[in-house]
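Figure 3 (text version): structure tokens given as input.
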């Protein structure tokens, strides 16, 4: 029987942040992780010299918790250009952030993603959200993202051709039924800073956080079978006692471990295919979006154009994301997917070689307007049991880290003498 102040179950970003803050607060901590490495969904596999994130992900550098906790210089971040290429009407059309590059914005005015009035409306919204308090953008009530865009005066063209593929990809919801609170917050984060990836893959974020923990805190291969306040039982039959247990698992696993106390919020799934290409289909660090809405792919990124470390010299790494309900594209050789890529990028697609595909059943918790009432769910269940994860905050790197920090603060506050 092993005794410690706190046992944290799950070494995703929430668990790593919670453990770090507890250690710094003077607690003895054990961080139990079922898999063979830290990071949860934020991990990277190396395959034939390519770096494959477990699903397409980016770091929004403006995230406050990420700024606070991560050493951006050490991560050697490569940034996407602000904007996107939108596939529509048989071509790729560049849409740019109107506040980032005036000349590019002027050239993009003619892109057929919506009328000029809506493009001006985007620029005004960017300015408004940058002036607003970021927390208020999350906390103020909002309808669905689609309804919010309509209330803001945007027309069907720009919603269908730009907002749906871009924010539908961010929120994993092509119908834009997710809470408008998240649209406002992410719009602000995209406007305030860069979207980046580390040169050694998104898993570098998790490794950086894990490396800061004292030796022996993180224990891998420790799947928790059951738990109760002050006691955890692992799959190997051992019982581990502590003062406080923190469940830092994703929503479905937290619901399994805490029946009746945590409800599975539901999930958004996504499939990500990685291809080895002899030449980059796009020679700019830009996201390519399906503005036609015909799918099955929603967005494509040439990650080696963003951060060269993602691919061996002389090769390109192409990421293709297929959202839930796309009606195809589950396999990299799916005829509909192959035809779509050939229409976008030409005959060279036939030389793309599939590397690996990831189907992520729980890529994000469901975040409909009713799910975010309140926007921050409680982390304390009782005096000796807490829960954290993006399902307690919002589905983002920042939300996961913030929820872990919140759980740690609750514990440290309770330990202070009255």
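Below: residues designed for each position.
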């Amino acid at each position: 029987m092993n005794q410690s102040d706190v046992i944290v179950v799950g070494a995703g970003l929430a668990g790593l942040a919670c453990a770090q803050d507890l250690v710094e607060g003077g607690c003895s901590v054990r961080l139990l992780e079922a898999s063979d490495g830290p990071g949860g969904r934020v991990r990277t596999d190396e395959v034939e010299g390519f770096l494959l994130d477990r699903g397409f992900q980016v770091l929004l550098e403006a995230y406050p918790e990420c700024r606070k906790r991560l050493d951006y210089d050490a991560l050697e971040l490569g940034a996407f250009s602000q904007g996107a290429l939108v596939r529509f009407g048989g071509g790729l059309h560049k849409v740019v952030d109107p506040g980032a590059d005036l000349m590019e914005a002027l050239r993009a005015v003619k892109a057929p993603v919506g009328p000029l009035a809506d493009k001006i409306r985007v620029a005004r919204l960017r300015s408004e959200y940058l002036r607003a308090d970021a927390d208020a953008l999350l906390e103020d009530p909002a309808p669905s993202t689609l309804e919010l865009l309509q209330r803001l005066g945007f027309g069907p063209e720009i919603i269908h051709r730009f907002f749906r593929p871009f924010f539908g990809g961010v929120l994993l919801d092509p119908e834009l039924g997710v809470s408008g609170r998240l649209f406002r917050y992410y719009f602000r984060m995209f406007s305030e800073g860069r979207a980046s990836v580390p040169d050694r893959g998104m898993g570098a974020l998790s490794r950086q956080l894990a490396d800061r923990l004292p030796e022996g805190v993180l224990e891998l291969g420790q799947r928790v079978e059951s738990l109760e306040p002050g006691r955890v039982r692992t799959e190997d039959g051992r019982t581990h006692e502590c003062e406080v247990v923190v469940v830092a698992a994703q929503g479905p696993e937290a619901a399994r471990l805490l029946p009746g106390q945590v409800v599975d919020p539901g999930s958004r799934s996504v499939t990500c295919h990685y291809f080895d290409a002899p030449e980059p289909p796009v020679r700019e660090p830009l996201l390519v979006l399906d503005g036609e809405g015909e799918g099955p792919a929603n967005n494509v990124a040439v990650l080696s154009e963003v951060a060269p470390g993602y691919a061996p010299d002389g090769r390109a790494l192409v990421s293709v994301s297929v959202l839930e309900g796309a009606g195809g594209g589950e396999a990299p050789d799916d005829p509909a997917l192959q035809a779509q890529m050939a229409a976008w990028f030409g005959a060279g697609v036939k030389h793309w070689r599939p590397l690996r595909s990831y189907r992520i059943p729980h890529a994000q918790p469901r975040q409909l307007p009713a799910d975010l009432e309140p926007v921050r769910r409680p982390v304390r269940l009782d005096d000796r049991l807490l829960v954290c994860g993006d399902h307690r905050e919002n589905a983002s790197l920042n939300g996961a880290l913030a929820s872990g920090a919140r759980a740690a603060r609750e514990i440290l506050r309770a330990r202070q003498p009255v």
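The chain has three domains: 4-43+202-266+368-415, 83-193, 267-364.
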